[in-house]
Design a protein that fits this description.
This protein is of the alpha+beta class and 284 residues long. 27% of the residues lie in helices and 29% in strands. The strands form 2 sheets. Strands 7, 8, 9, 10, 11, 12, 13, 14 and 15 form a 9-stranded mixed beta sheet that branches. Strands 2-1-6-5-3-4 form a 6-stranded antiparallel beta sheet. Bound molecules: N-(5'-phosphopyridoxyl)-D-alanine (PDD). Its cofactor is pyridoxal 5'-phosphate.
Length: 284
Amino acid sequence: MSDVYLNGEMLPLEKAQISVLDRGFLFGDGVYEVIPVFHGHPLRLEKHMERLNASLAAIQLPVEITITEWRSIFDQLLSRNPGQHQALYLQISRGSYASRQHGFPTETRPTVFVMTMPLAPRINDSLDDVKGGTAITAPDQRWQRCDIKSTSLLSNVMHHQLALNSGATEAILVDAEGRVTEGSSSNVFIVRDGTIITPPRSHKILSGITRALVLELVVNDGTYPCEERDVSVNELTTADEIWITSSSKEILPIIELNGIPVGKGKPGGVWRHVAGLYQTYKAG
Ligand code: PDD
């Protein structure tokens, strides 16, 4: 059984308990982060902590934990729960109070929880081993603040289950205007005529740390042009390549969309190049 961090204490997972009046439980009133850790090194830790702080600020939840304190919590957890590749899961809710009231309590006592989770890297030494995933499209039924990494994930969960029910890996969401937003738990990239395209940052998507890393790698490399712009559902369904990105999925090529092969129905050449850049960065 693994050790976890809860409100200042390290303790075995089965001993970690919170109140049923916790606002995370009652309202989904909280935010979270998933930080991938490869060979013991958290990938882009500062960026994840910046996004956490942005999410906390957006929901007006002040938390007095410094980056040094966070690092010490992560180091302790990683040494107590050894493993080659893991993810740090970090969740902060607004805490528990005497009664259930929608309004924010005047005095805040957040619940702070961190655990490690095993992570099976999707991209290993041989890119030939990556078979790719499949996706469906679905109407995006979420709220207008998808930029906040909130634990209120019911729509995401339902979108994801829709994909699983049809045997697919991910649901790619499309807004009311026919524009691709993101996946139920990932960002989306397409390739058309050698150009890499991804929807722009906005309140409609989570600003993925993996998405930003991919864009940075592609720009620095300079082999392929890339654009952050709206992507229509028509551009998606006729794309040469589709990828989804996230801390746990890394850069996963989608080889079939709505039952129809994407491009040649196997991971594409542009994916291969960019996955190679990502792999080198990860190793570095
Ligand atoms: N999900 N969009 C959504 C809705 C997400 O839930 C995620 C990640 C991403 C990609 O973000 P990043 O590259 O920073 O992981 C985009 C995490 C992994 C999860 O909920 O488990």
